[in-house]
Amino acid sequence: MGGNQGSPQSDRFADDPAFAVHEGGKLTVTPNRSIDSIADLALTYTPGVARVSSAIAAEPELARRFTWAPGVVAVVSDGSAVLGLGDIGPAASLPVMEGKACLFSEFAGLSAVPIVLSTNDVDEIVAAVEAIAPSFGGINLEDISAPRCFEIEARLRDRLDIPVMHDDQHGTAIVVLAALRNAAKVVGRELGGLRVVVSGAGAAGVACTKILLGAGVGDIAVADSQGVLHAGRTGLTPTKQWLVENTNRAGYAGTMIGALEGADVYLGLSGGSVPESAIASMAPGCIVFSLANPIPEVDPEMAKKYAAVVATGRSDLPNQINNVLAFPGVFRGAIDAGARSITEEMKLAAAAAIADVVGDDLRPDYVVPSPLDRRVAAAVADAVGACAREQGITV
What we know:
By secondary structure, the protein is of the alpha/beta class. The chain has 2 domains: 17-166, Malic enzyme, N-terminal domain (Rossmann fold, 3-Layer(aba) Sandwich); 167-395, Rossmann fold. The chain is built from 16 helices and 10 strands. The strands form 2 sheets. It has a 6-stranded mixed sheet, with helices on one face. A 4-stranded parallel sheet has the order 2-1-3-4. The radius of gyration is 23 Å and the shape is globular. The N and C termini lie far apart (55 Å).
């Protein structure tokens, strides 16, 4: 059955540089101690290692000093909501998790191990992560579909005493808030005075709504595929019911398109397409964050005709909302501080740190730093670590 498909003579991937980057995987485990003698061997492994293990058994907190676990993040997925590809399964998701591990190393100096699970069952995922947690200093949940991702994260946060974060939720939310803080400055507005319409009530939409509420945005309407969430809706999940109870203070019961009339901010997290007439109906000097990737919900060139600030998820356009601005520094700061969890206050601190990196260079096409800006992870780590210590949640 095509046993020579990978041979140079018949390599159908040879012309695509992406496959060359991924050939053989993108990660290795490299020891930081060499073994050049019998003495080295005896100290690295038996019998010397037994003394270290015995000491940790007697005093478990010594594991923070004498193992790699505190500085290693597990990147965990079931492959059910990968990028824009959907439910492609664990094996196909592994290149993405490897890539995430590369970003942890490159931007935060953290080792990370990709772990993909061959189950979509919430109980099984929680049990598996809980079982492997002693090997790690943090758990980055990745590409797990909603609504299961909410329960998985919540249960792991309750059970583990190390930082746990579902990046598709909170990484996106942190960077969106950072961008909106600066976009509001561009248009001379306060966050509390903005009326925001969020398109999408999945993982990112819910997390963005929660962090915006926490930052003081008081008027948010959230729409799913059936329209704006309001008190008259029935058959809602607990998460959507929470949104009903905490958003849409006007009680609007129409469509997302209708909600955009007079709105200050559009935040697209759902895909699809928004007509020009809807963007034209927004308030003067509006802000459009259209984050579906690779095709934004709102055409960026069209949006510029009406919006003062436009952001997307694309790397080839200004104002890219990219999670890499958040998660490396968040975990670096939390782990270095010995934080037992990642709190809402730490996320707000991370968003402020990202926004502050822009500084005096703020302009309509530069409301968030470049994903390659090496100042960001350090600034986020400092802010997150300081917040954790202030909250007294460190070991």
